[in-house]
Amino acid sequence: MKLDVINLDGGSAGEVELDEALFGLEPRADILHRVVRWQRNKAQAGTHKVKTRSEVSYSKKKIYRQKGTGGARHGSRNAPIFRKGGIYKGPTPRSHGHELPKKVRKLGLMHALSSKVKDGSLVVIEAADCDGKSKTLAKQVANLGWKRALIIDGAEVNENFARAAANIEGLDVLPSQGANVYDILKRDTLVLTKAGVEALEARLK
Question: Is 195 helix (H, G, I), strand (E, B) or coil?
C-alpha cells in the first residue's frame, strides 16, 4: 500500500510503499490485549510488602494469664486479630511478569501498526529534524493537528529533535527499537519517519 509522505511544515514529500504483511492486517483485539497485559505486568515493581506477626514491633510477653479471665486464651499482641498486629497472608515482593512467546509479541506490534493504518491515524514524515527549539516544533505540531502523538524514528533519534520534543506535552519520541504496542495504542496519532518505516520493516520481517 502507498501512503503520502509529508514534511514537518506540512508540505508534500512524495510517497512511501508500506508492506501489506505488516501494515495491512485486520487488527485482533485479543492479541493486542495479550501483549499490552504482558507489557504492563512486566513493568510493575512488585515491591508491595506488609509486616507479618514476626515482624511487627510489640512486646513478646504473654498479654494476660491463660485461665480464669473468662475470655479467649491469647499469648501475643502480634496476632493478626489484634489492632496493629501482623497481617495474615498479605502481599510480599514478587515479580508480576509472565511469559509470552516472541511470535505473539511480534504479531502484536504488527497488529498495532495495522490498527493505526485502519483508523487513518498513521502519518509518515520525511525526517524528524529541527533546530532544537521547543517553540518552533510546538508550532509545527499544532499546525499539523497532532495533540497526542508518538513519533518513531530510525535506529537513533535526532538529538535536537528529542530535546525540543521533551518539553511538549502529549508528544513522545522513540527509536525504532523502542517501538511497542502499549505506547502505539496509547497515543491518538502514530508518526513514522521514512527511516522508522524501513527499520520497523527490517525488524518485523
Answer: helix
The CATH number linked to 24 is: 3.40.1370.10
Look-up: residue for cell 493478626? 80
The per-residue b/e assignment along 1-33, b for 16 or more CB within 10 angstroms, e otherwise, is eebebbebeeeebeebebeeebbebebeeebbe
Q: What is the pLDDT of residues 73-97, one digit of tens each?
A: 999 999 999 999 999 999 999 999 9
Domain that holds residue 73: 50-90
Task: Provide the β-strand partners of residue 149.
Answer: 171, 189
Domain count, the chain: 2
Q: Tell me: do 118 and 24 sit in the same domain.
A: yes
Assessment of whether the complete model's pTM goes beyond 0.85: no
How many whole angstroms separate alpha carbon 96 and alpha carbon 40? Answer: 9
Do residue 107 and residue 164 come from a single domain? yes
Tens digit of each residue's pLDDT (9 = 90 or more) over 11-56 = 888 899 999 999 999 999 999 999 999 999 999 999 999 999 999 9
Looking at the structure, tell me whether residues 59 and 156 fall in a common domain: no
User: Do 166 and 184 have their domain in common?
Assistant: yes
CA distances from 88 to 54, 58, 92, 146 (A): 11, 16, 11, 50
